[in-house]
């Protein structure tokens, strides 16, 4: 039997989903809680196989409860079951240590299957949550814009930070003024900025110059 602790501040939700889970041959609801504080106490005393955790509750929210449970019991498997898909709910919940993330709009059978999969070591995420996580990962893997600059463009950007005009840059580098203008235009485009001032600010912000 997979032992489940169900945490939700809505009694009807606990009754509805809880009854379905209890009717399964391989699942057993061993405890219920209606706030995060009680969830922490029950989780550490009952040591259930799976914890179904609501996020928004009156006394202590599910994110804080998840943090405290994981801190005291790192092997706990927590499935978030909530109505919220906001970034300030999804990412903090996963970062707190939640294993899976389900929505209350899911069928009770889907939640039951999520319990089974999570118990066996899988991560179960709603499609919308998966999309959010993948998008954030792609953004995190994105190369800094300045890595697209050529050696000459970086050299010109350095001179721009010194306040040199295009003609001064051309004279110092012994290249044509038209060539400098082309390089400056490329720099602005690659750094996704509108003017020279923003390019200089970018350079200092990303420590391209001291």
Automatic annotation (TrEMBL):
Residues 3-119 form the Response regulatory domain. Residues 142-207 form the HTH luxR-type domain. PROSITE patterns: HTH_LUXR_1 (PS00622), HTH_LUXR_2 (PS50043), RESPONSE_REGULATORY (PS50110). Pfam families: GerE, Response_reg. This is Response regulator transcription factor. CDD domains: LuxR_C_like, REC_NarL-like. Keywords: DNA-binding, Phosphoprotein, Transcription, Transcription regulation. The modification 4-aspartylphosphate is found at residue 54. The lineage of its organism: Bacteria, Bacillati, Bacillota, Bacilli, Bacillales. The keyword Membrane does not apply.
């Amino acid at each position: 039997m997979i032992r489940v602790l169900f945490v939700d501040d809505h009694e009807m939700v606990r009754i509805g989903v809880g009854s379905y889970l209890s009717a399964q041959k391989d699942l057993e609801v061993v405890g219920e809680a209606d706030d995060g504080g009680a969830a922490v106490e029950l989780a550490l005393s009952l040591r259930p196989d799976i914890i179904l955790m609501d996020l928004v509750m009156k006394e202590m929210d599910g994110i804080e409860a998840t943090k405290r449970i994981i801190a005291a019991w790192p092997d706990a498997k927590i499935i978030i079951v909530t109505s919220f898909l906001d970034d300030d709910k999804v990412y903090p919940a996963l970062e707190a240590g939640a294993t899976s993330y389900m929505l209350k709009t899911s069928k009770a059978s889907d939640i039951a299957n999520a319990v089974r999969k999570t118990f066996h070591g899988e991560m179960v995420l709603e499609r919308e949550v998966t999309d959010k996580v993948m998008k954030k990962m792609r953004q995190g893997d994105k190369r800094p814009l300045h890595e697209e600059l050529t050696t000459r463009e970086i050299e010109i950007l350095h001179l721009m930070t010194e306040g040199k005009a295009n003609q001064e840059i051309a004279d110092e580098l012994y290249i044509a003024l038209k060539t400098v203008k082309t390089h400056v235009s490329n720099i602005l485009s690659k750094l996704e900025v509108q003017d020279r001032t923003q390019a200089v600010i970018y350079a200092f912000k990303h420590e391209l110059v001291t």
